[in-house]
Design goal:
Number of helices: 12
Shape: elongated
Strand content: 5-15%
Oligomer: single chain
Largest sheet: 4 strands, antiparallel
Helix content: over 70%
Strand order of the largest sheet: 3-4-2-5
Length: 334
Amino acid sequence: MASFSQFGSDLYTGKRSYDIVGRRKTWYLVAIIAIVVSLAVPWLRGGYQLGIEFTGGSEFTISNAKDLDQSIATRTVESIVPEGIPRVSQVGQGGIRVQTEQLTDRQTSDVQDALAKAYDVSDDQVASTYIGATWGADVLAQAIRGLVIFLALAAVVMALYFRTWKMSLSAMVALLHDLLITAGVYGIVGLEVTPAAVIGFLTILGYSLYDTVVVFDKVRENTSQESHRTFTQSVNLAVNQTLVRSINTSVVALLPVAAILFIGSYVLGAGTLRDISLALFIGIIVGTYSTIFIASPMYAHLRENEPKVKQADEKKRQAAAKRQREVDATAEAV
């Protein structure tokens, strides 16, 4: 613990430093590759697998099933609706959930009775619900609208708070990076995108934005002070000074999320808990990366070519070269 504390202290004072901002091209390349994979793989697989809440359809829930073999449900539904492709999953310790395309009232009744017989349960232990396609489309539209409004408001607030649109733009790029990769993981693995997952997506955007604001506060503090460091060096120092804090915050946030993910998926079998916690788990990791390796380097990239910044940096480099020449001359004289 002491050595880690010393490590953090060295980063804060500048005694130890990692050239994160200077290697921004490497981080950009990693981010671009990750985004391309996140977009290409789901597209090659036929798109994202949207939950029934978005697409509409019929859902059957079997309670207290003694046999949890999911293939029984698949065969049962296909025997009544041959053209249907049911999606079957386990819910909790003794529940089976079956989702199908939109069925007629007669088909719904037949499937409900057939599932009760197949799993040897009473009729009242097989619940059926129906979600219309129009309602699902409205939910999807509302989710997209909420995302756009969130990003727009976040961009405006950050631009006003930091008094520069370049910080806001860097933060928004980092947020889009987090969203695309987190959603891409869902598409790559083939997990359903449900309203709970969308809530998780929006939550991790808030987490990533919070982490970025903390780092940017330190960036603004360093770049507004008179020092011998160039603008890029001041930004890099700020990233190093907040590096340990970002790691600690992420680890502390990941531990309870990982516990919820494990309990929700493997113990309770609760789909809602799994969807939210999985999105949070992926998003926290990706958000930490984007804050450190995307947002701050991009902000330095956007500012370093400004005439005022270039002029100040040139003066600092000349002063540093002059000091070095004086040191070399003193060493030769000795």
